[in-house]
Design goal:
This is Cupin type-2 domain-containing protein. Pfam families: Cupin_2 (PF07883). The protein has 185 residues and is mainly beta. The protein has a seven-stranded antiparallel β-sheet. Strands 7-6-9 form a three-stranded antiparallel β-sheet, with no helix packed on it. A hairpin with a 2-residue loop joins strand 1 and strand 2. It is globular and about 45 Å long. 34% of the residues are buried.
Length: 185
């Protein structure tokens, strides 16, 4: 039996709206959103962890680089479970690197470090965790993108308007860097 809750984000969710309540979510049954060509599934967020961390997956097709961005107060990890994902990262001294991550590989991005990624194989999947003094940013996906009820990738990419990108940083500790250039390939 799966319990559903009403939250401030959704009429029905399998994630309880407040901390201190144990729960179990079956595969793929978290809160889902489409952003760009990806399906993001949230399993735990700020409400459940008192803003200590979040836990989500990102599944996507082979495609374009997700826009460069940084999190001023949040650390982020990438753990690849399927396919291949190219992670682009720039450290605080401006040194850039890129690395192809395959199943079992882990990438760590400290706060304030520009980063981006690109799915290199269809149906690649990343497990993401973010934590830091800035709180968590998991609700950014459905705010910038579109909440999704079904499983699967979006039929058409969900690309926000430039004005919508500007609304995100204040609330979700995500700052996009539209002029950022990757010197790596």
């Amino acid at each position: 039996m799966t319990i559903e809750y009403a939250t401030r984000y959704r009429q029905t969710s399998r994630i309880p709206a407040e901390p201190g309540k144990p729960y179990v979510i079956e595969k793929g049954e978290g809160d889902r959103a489409h952003l760009f060509g990806d399906l993001i599934t949230i399993y735990a967020g700020g409400e459940q962890t008192e803003n200590a961390f979040n836990f989500f997956t990102v599944e996507g097709p082979k495609g374009n680089v997700i826009p460069a961005h940084l999190h001023p107060d949040t650390y982020e990890v990438f753990y690849v479970t399927q396919g291949a994902v190219r992670l682009f990262v720039e450290d605080l001294e401006g040194e850039q690197q890129e690395k192809l991550l395959t199943p079992g590989d882990f990438g760590f991005v400290p706060k304030n470090c520009p980063h981006a990624y690109r799915m290199e194989r269809h149906h690649s999947q990343v497990v993401g965790v973010a934590a830091g003094p800035g709180g968590t940013f998991e609700r950014f996906f459905e705010t910038l993108g579109a909440p999704a009820d079904g499983l699967g990738l979006p039929r058409e990419p969900v690309v926000p308007t430039p004005g919508k990108f500007a609304t995100v940083p204040e609330q979700y500790d995500v700052r996009f860097l539209p002029e950022h250039q990757w010197r790596t390939r």
